[in-house]
Amino acid sequence: MIGKINELSLPVVEKYQKSLVSVEHVNEYGIDIIRITIDDPNTFDIDIDDVAKINEEILDLVNDYLPDGYYLEVTTVGIERELKSDDDLEKALGKYIYLKTYEKIESAFNQKEIYGYLESYTSDFINVNVINKTRTKLVTIEKSKIAKLRLAVKF
Question: Among 25, 107, 129, 133, which is least packed by CB within 10 angstroms?
Fold first, then answer.
């Protein structure tokens, strides 16, 4: 079932210039869901109207393959997605990020949990305009010292 839904979904997702990340069966609170996760290969911004249109078109195609009681859900990778590759970092340039390091970074106000704007990166380092209360500072951090790196929402 998952393979067939994946096969039928791919052309619809590509029609909207998105990429198909995964098709999976999940059970949440006793409800069976076929979850289709999509992403934009060029940016991190996906219009909610596109997600709704993709959901409708895929549902029309796969409805006969969904067992009774199953729901279809089209979702995105998320607003606070992890940044795992240089491609992700490229798309995140200038964006607000969160990173957690294995040890405190002295130049980053002696913090392990850091918020700021991604300024640039190399294969070994990232440069972040770190924010600490009312102060900002451009800090270079070794990638090997980063435990977690993701986009962040600034309130």
Answer: 133
Kind and range of the H or E run holding 115: strand 111-121
Class (C level, CATH) for 2-76: alpha beta
The Cα 110–Cα 99 span in angstroms is 13
Cβ(52)–Cβ(38) under 8 Å?
A: no
Class at the top of the CATH hierarchy for domain 86-151: mainly beta
Judge residue 152's burial from the number of C-beta atoms within 10 Å of its C-beta, 0-12 exposed, 13-18 middle, 19 or more buried.
middle
Backbone angles phi, psi at 62, to 5 degrees: -105, 0
Q: Which amino acid is at 81?
A: R
Query: Distance between CA atoms of 97 and 79, rounded to whole angstroms?
Result: 11
Instruction: Using DSSP bridges, classify how beta strands 19-28 and 31-39 pair: parallel, antiparallel or unpaired.
Output: antiparallel
What torsion, rounded to 10 degrees, do the Cα atoms 75, 77, 81, 83 define? Answer: -170
> pTM of this prediction?
0.73
